[in-house]
Each structure stands twice: as structure tokens, then as C-alpha cells.
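Bug #77: duplicate submission created two jobs. Keeping one. Sequence:
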Amino acid sequence: MDAIVIRGYCGEDWPRLQAIHDAARQNELRLAGLEAAFLPLAIAAESEGLFDYTVRVACLGDAAAGFSAFAEGELAWLYVAPALSRRGIGTRLVQDALEHTGRPVTVEVLTGNEPARRLYERCGFRLIETVSGRMPGNEAFPVTCHVLQLD
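Kept job's structure:
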């Protein structure tokens, strides 16, 4: 199997990141019972400020396999192509983000998305609270999220 390489985002990554996000986000929302809240990355990137964050891309060989976006103290986005899940890509993206940001670091996980919660807990995050509100970028939908933190 190819090694996972993490690098900075470049414009040529955009079509692949859209495909990764759109497939993975639909799975995430299905787990949370929020399928109707789906917005493609072409819309969500602007409404949720993707490029306000540092964006990093995980590659297997020459192909993007996942991506993360983070700022100081916050891991805001992490998506892996569903066909490539359970190969360590998500873990490597978390580790990479942690190398580039200070502590504490928080991440929010939609309730119902147990695979993501387990990933973050394996990486050392712990649940600090569960909050309810409106979905960022798609405020018509109420959401409940687990907030996890790594000190």
C-alpha cells in the first residue's frame, strides 16, 4: 500500500476535495439523521469558511484521499474518501493538524457519528460537553454535537 503523505492544499486539489467531502459528508449526515441538511463543498466551503483555515491534503500515491482544515486550537474539517476509510488516513490527518496547532485543541462531532468520535478518542481527545444549536452554514437545521478536546 502507498504511504500516506500530508501536504498543503493547492488549487488543483479542488475537484478531488469536492468529491471526497460530498461523499463523506453524506455519510456523516446519514449517521446523524440529518440527510436533508447536505450541502456540496462548492457551497459549504464559502458558507462555512473552509479557506479561513489552514487546509492540508492526505495523498495516497498521486491522489488526494482526504483533507483537514484547522486553526489555532480548532480542528474544523476532516474528511476521508469513504472508499479509503479504515486505512489510517484520518489518524494521520489528525496527527498532522496537531503538529501545526497549539493546545488545547477542540473538535465537534455530530451526535450519531460514532466512527468520527472513536477516531478522535483514539487520538487522545476526550468529551468535554454536548451542545445543541443550528448547523453552521445551513442554519435551517438544528444539530447536537459532542465537543471533544485534547489538552
